[in-house]
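Hello, quick one for you while I still have it in my head. I'm working through a protein record and want to make sense of it properly. Would you mind checking whether the tokens look sensible for this chain? I owe you a coffee for this, so here goes:
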Amino acid sequence: MTVSTVVAGSRKGLSWQPSGENKLAIMAWQALCLEAAACDPGAPRWLSLASFLLSSICCTTTKEPSEAFVHNMTVMITLRAALVFSVFFHEYSHVLAAVLISGKLCALDGNNLLCNVPLSAWFMALVPFSGWPRLASNPHVLVPAYAIDPPNTKKSKLEETAIEYMGLFGSVVLCVVVTYGNMLYYQTPQHREPILACTLAPWLVAAGAFATDFFKLHPDSGSMYSTAHESYMLFRCGNFGMLLVSARNKLVDVSGTLGRMAATTAARGGQAGGLVTVLSDGSTVRSRYVPTKRADVAAGLVFRFASLIWLAEMWACLKRLFRCFSATCAAPHDNLPAFFLGHTRFATSSGPSVADTHPHRFSTSTHVNIWRCAPTGWYKSSENFELYVTHNGDLDYMEELDSKVLRTHKELGMWLQLVLHTASIPGCDSVKVAGVLELFRTQGIWKHALRLSSLLSTSLGSFGAQVLDSKTLSTAAEIADEVFLGFVGKDLRQDPSIILQLSVTLAAELYEKVQQLRNRYGTCEKLAELATQYFLENDLFMSVHKLLGKAHGSFGISACCSVDRDLVVLACRGQAMSLAFNEIHGVVLWGSEVSAQSVPFVKKGLQGTLTRGVTHGASDLESSSVADPASIEQLCTHRHDLDENGGEVVEVRVQNTVTIAKEMEQWVASGNVRDVFKCVVDDMGGYFAPFPMQNTLHLRVYKHKRGRFLSKNEFQQPESCVSLLPAKACAAVQVGPSMYDVVEKDMRDIPSILGTIRKEWDEKTSQNSMTSHALYGLLRDLILARNAVPKIADFHDRLEVDVLITGCEASLWIGEQFASDLQNLFPALRVVAMSANKVIGVLSNTRGSAPMSGFAFSSRTMSLKKTIILSLSHSGQTFPTLHATHTLRKLCGDRVFVVTGSVDSKMSAAVGQLSYVGAPWLARTWTTFAGWRPAEALTVSTVAFHQTLTELLLCLARCAVNETDAAFAAAAGLKLEEKDLDDMWRLNLASTQLAIPEILGVDAKGQTAPSKVHASLKKQGRTWALHVLEGPYSWCLSSAYICLTVIWGHPLFSSVVQLVYGALHDGVDGPQKLPEAINHVMLALDAVLYSFLPLFFCMLLRVVQSRELLARLGKRTLVIADVPYVHQLLESYVSKMFSLSYSIAALEVHGANAIDHLVHRFTHRCYRGTLIAVGRTDGRLFSQSKGESWILMAMQQCKAIMHLGSGPEIISVGHNPYNNPSLFTHHTTLSSRRPRFLCETLSELEHLETTEPMSLSAAVKELDRKTSTHTDAVQRFDIVAKNGTAASGGVATAPQNDSKAVGYHHLERLAPAQLLRMHLRLQRTLQRAGEALLFDEASRHGDLSRHELSQHSVHGLADRSRHSNYADRSRHSGNADRSRRASGGVLSIDRNGNSDADNTIHSITLQGLAEAAGPAVLDRAIDQLQGSPILQLFDKTATLELWHENRHASLERYVAFLVLFHQMAARVASFAPLGFNVSRSQSQLRVATTAAPISAAEIQHAWDSDFDELPDMAEERSTSRSG
């Protein structure tokens, strides 16, 4: 809030008036008023000067100047302290109101404790005669919007207004209290100025609050007030890193940016975190933080880091006061860069602890003599040396320095301790990376150069060499400094022989003056030669390069050193790493998570202050996508992704070109640099400045795979420096305190995401559609090629996999369902779903020939020669899936496709798809449009993933149906036709646009749309939450009872009996006491009650809440029963939401398939009170009736496990409204917003009083038994009257609207004209010679494929047929109700089912049919012509019913369970004493970007032969064939 500049300057406005004769007192009062006015941030500086002058005059003109000075300083400090206190009181009033209204402690945020102002700013505000600090000009508190529930209602607006005005009310109350108190206790005149200061301050604050909160006179940007943003209500009165080209850039919100980046990066794991920076004097500030189970690693880390920075600033201020020179206290014109290295950790090689938390340094801080090369020449200085590293990945092995011998990181650590003279180190592998870099970083430091060269100057090898002691090393370093001092004036670049002369001179001096070196290294020539080389060359960039050349494992490294205060080195191999730039502000962000580089970094309220008058076309880089100045100010505009596959090292340095050029002349002078990098190095050492507006920002980029430096032109290519779209960058999900329940927000985004997916796939030219057509082309070619060349059976041939689907966890579970549906769509395909961990586990073993234990997948059992790969990963960077994609692409080439949440992902890059503006579309990537999501409990990402694969199947089906090659349908086993696709499209539309939004209670625009289904699910979730909260409620009630009875001193039974006894035996002296015996009995009963008090309150709660009384006490178990992908996703979802719950409110979660292993796995674990949530298939569909009946049977078996009359509590969710109250405690019926299926339109079924699946199935079979003709079958469907007009002959016309039943076109084909055409076609087929056409016809009309027929003799099938007695008509001979005539092996068929003379009779020879095509074809032919007409129809629509269940109905049940279980968890989490965050777990592992658990370090990057052409197998195959 703004401190008002309203000053009561006249004596009439003051409560205390000095004597008229005392002019000095008047001047002192005027100085006080000027000081109060100067406390306004917008006040001119002369006010502070005027106040100082008046105070000085008062002090110098008095008799006691020293006492007057102390008195005036006391008054001024009192005024400022009172102002600070008044501001805090005002802001805390907002917080108190928010806590009281919401009942949540969410507003008690760490940042709110200081009103979102740095502590240093508050201390500066207490300094008299100074302007009010700019950082303290913006005090405010942040109240999350979710504290007001529900939002956007009249009630919420009233609550928001109450919270806003509470600050004004608090300020007024403070004014009244302070004024009254000062008047009451005012005694002596010498106290009047301090008392006036204490009284004046709250009134000034109240005046400012009245202007801003009541009259809404909000100042402009840069003042103390700005509007709320996103999901905050803002009440104002008034592996990641960051580099700033200029530390003076005050527009960048450093702490806020680091906090947002840490929160985003914590999705990779947040068990610990750390930050480090190097100050301008070479000192370092490092903060490492291991949060407690429920603490936020990002918030805690940044708060501690900011506190340490503030302490460093205070120490710098103290040194300035004592006139001690310090670079930290540099003048304002000092324009040094500032960089920050951060890391959040998911522990792999060691547990989470402060010692094992990044950033790591191997040795403690030491001082070294370092030589630097400036434009004016060499100079020496003594500086602090500390080297810090953050590392993602794993260090598996390290080669010895002079050989290829591998050492484990533990062996490496022990060796480094000896070499670097370090006493103890943490046990993790990353600290060894820091140790190796510390050993290699020798440039300009003779001590370090000699230490490294001493390890490589003997024949014993680096690990066997004797280590020099510290004293000898220091002596040798002093000698080297003296020798080099004599060469300082010489130009090494102009005369390279000087380097040789330097080496020779150094060797001579060392040989002469250090006996130990002479004894160990002889003439010391090699020692001096290597030391000189390392002294000139081994900077931090080369050190990291050498590390990658020697280390084995996966690495994402950022490194800094205290002696290199102007640069940071980044590197990666096997781990993701990216750099993002903003040229306008001179900001560089980097990290492993791309989303972390999409965070805004400009301070709120300061946008627009820098880009005014800036021409954005000045950049060398593509600027078409950054034309919006607002986006340029807030976000990074370009990004460079390091090559994680081939390895890459990047140095980011802020230095002028002249200095860099001079240093690089000396760096390149030795000539050995070219040998190290194996390429030509230019005079600038690979440096270039990519941004002309930041001409001091230089990059140096080395590609390991290419073996050369990247030039400026290559870097500026759009595929290297990606131009970021503002819209895409702004789409990043905001993280921070406001996003407490991001799970609910994600669920509310589901309808809009589904709408986006639907629009994308409706466009035939969209990227997803083009990728789908590319996949179909490969599938089509694969099927036709196989059909053209029949496969000859070979015992030694491996299984050919047509489509391999790989992924991890949720992606794999959804992929397994997709694989099943793809197999059903194209029965001829061989589709396999496999974990990516299994894939990389196999490919890392002897080129794929050794399978993993328990699995058969290997190059010896399966062939990937023609396999099409689908890699699934929503994040796009899951470690196993990403590395499996890289490796499989080497084997399968362009046959690898990926499905991910965003095109701009590592998975897309793995298949060659670039994300820069205008990049060519390779048609190998599908995107779900769900983007990056911070919640660990998956909701919108899984729904979008499943729906994207549904759209893919629809697209493939449409392409196949529209295929012009008639042979393709038969070869693929395709059973669908065009009208089936129309039905599938309508089912898809009804599910995504109607059913799912109704379940979520949110429309496609994100607006609340209440529904009965949503309300029922939420109610059931809240009810089940009471089971979990039973323990905490009982505990609280028991505590209250114990406290009450113990403090009061009257236990229940004793007190009640005493009252009764006293009333019955009321004597003269009052009620008599209980007899001793009765008193002891009552006390014993009270003791028993105390012992079982929680049990008593549990029973009481169950009675009050109408819950099962005799259910078992203690932790509840939840079992989720549904189809595999649904129960697997939900088991993970619920367990993650409850992962931070307290043990007293915990929940054990399991999942099972109700029609498979539920009974076998969980019936022996069922007990009283077990919670079972079952998803039921829609038994109203004929093909699903048995499935639902089996589910009901399984639930009945679980329910039968009872004790004391109590068993499991079962609820169900499904589309069938049937409910058995004795079996289900509650059933939520999901609305059937889809069109009806054909089986639901039987007129007789509408009169049934139940939808119990077995009853429906029995009724259908009874109707089929009674139906003798196709005309009768047609008439039994009421769809004829509803959807069409009966034509002559009983033919129903197709409806003209979307209300027609699914599968209606199959009913149309029962008309006589269609039957006649079918009969004629079958008759012609029988008369044709040759088996090929019979095979094709068999494939068209049934499930017998060409492959099945090819495995057997046709005549053999006829011999084994149950129709060998041709007078017997198989299963059709026993139906007396049907009109059939058989004579002499000839079946005569009435095409209408009647005996009219006009009917054409067709004769079909059963013997010929059986001999030609076998019994299966015979059965299908008979079914086609007359038997079981209703069941025939339902068999035809079974494919559509199965499609609906697998792709839509199961998804709707999944979404319904998301709502139910979220409400359950949210209610448990909202219990204030035991509150927790439902959106994350303790590990915070949202994306597994490290080995989980299989490492990809051993995967061969260069395969000698293809996966399918192993030499030994090729030899075996050739030998067997020749034999």
In short: The mean pLDDT is 76. The chain is about 45% helix and 15% strand. The longest strand covers residues 387-399.
